[in-house]
Amino acid sequence: MKVSLTDAGKRFNRDWIFRHLTYTLESANSYAIIGPNGSGKSTLLQVLSGAMQSSEGNVHWSVGNGELAIEKIFDHVAICAPYLEVVEEMTLKEFFSFHHNFKPFLSSLNIDFIISRIDLEAATHKQIRYFSSGMKQRVKLAQAIFSDTPFLLLDEPCTNLDANGIRLYHQLIDEYGKNRLVIVSSNDEVEYRFCHERINIIEYKK
C-alpha cells in the first residue's frame, strides 16, 4: 500500500490547515502526524484515508502496481478515532460479528480469540453501552487493528486507556502492524514512539 501526496493542501473557508505537503507513505513503515491540539492532525488523517478531499495538489493511493480509485479506499483502510463510535446497543460479540460482515478480520483470527486478546472475555455478552470508556477504546482498537487491511489509521489511539491498555496497544501494533502502512495522529509520544517517521503539521502551515 502506498499513499503519495504532491503539493497537497486543505483549507476550510480561508483558513489553511496544511499546504504544500509532498510526501510518500508506504507499507511496512509507520508514520506519526504530530502537532499541538487543534493544529489539523485529524484533518490530514482524513485526507489520507480518502474520507476528505484535498483543496489543492494531488493525493494518490496504490496497491501493488495498480492505482486505487478513491471509492475503493474503504476496502483497504481501517480506522480508530475518537469521532467514530461503536454500536452501543449491541453486545461485544454481536458488534464484532456485525463489523466482520463489512470488513473481515485477519484470516487467522476468530471473534472469540479477538475478545480474549483484548482481555474482555467477561464482557462478551454485555451491551457495549455499559462498558467503561477504556473498554470501549479497546473495542475500537480491536476493530481497526484486527481488520484485514493493509492501511491502518490511528487517531489518538490511547484515549481513555490505563497503563495496561497502553501496554496492550503497543503489543498489538508490534504483533499485527509490521507489514502494514500505519499512521498515528497524536501529540503524545507514548502513542507514536514506535513510528519510523514523523510529520509535523506545523511545518506545513505556510
Describe it.
- It is a single chain.
- The protein has 206 residues and is an alpha/beta fold.
- The chain has a single domain, classed as P-loop containing nucleotide triphosphate hydrolases (Rossmann fold, 3-Layer(aba) Sandwich), CATH 3.40.50.300.
- 28% of the residues lie in helices and 28% in strands.
- It has six helices and nine strands; from the N terminus they run βββαβββαααβαβαβ.
- The strands form two sheets. It has a five-stranded parallel sheet with strand order 6-7-8-3-9, sandwiched between helices. It has a four-stranded antiparallel sheet with strand order 2-1-4-5, covered by helices on one side.
- A hairpin with a 2-residue loop joins β1 and β2.
- The longest helix is centred in the C-terminal third of the chain and has 14 residues.
- The protein starts with a strand and ends in a 6-residue tail after the last strand.
- The mean pLDDT is 96.
End-to-end gap = 29 Å
Topology as a string of helices (H) and strands (E): EEEHEEEHHHEHEHE
Just give the CATH class: Alpha Beta
* Count of helical stretches: 6
CATH topology: Rossmann fold
Q: Please, what is the average pLDDT?
A: 96
Helix/strand/pairing category = alpha/beta
Give a short account of the largest sheet. 5 strands, parallel
Radius of gyration: 17 Å
In total, the number of strands is 9
How would you write the strand order of the largest sheet?
6-7-8-3-9
Q: Summarize the amount of helix as a percent range.
A: 25-40%
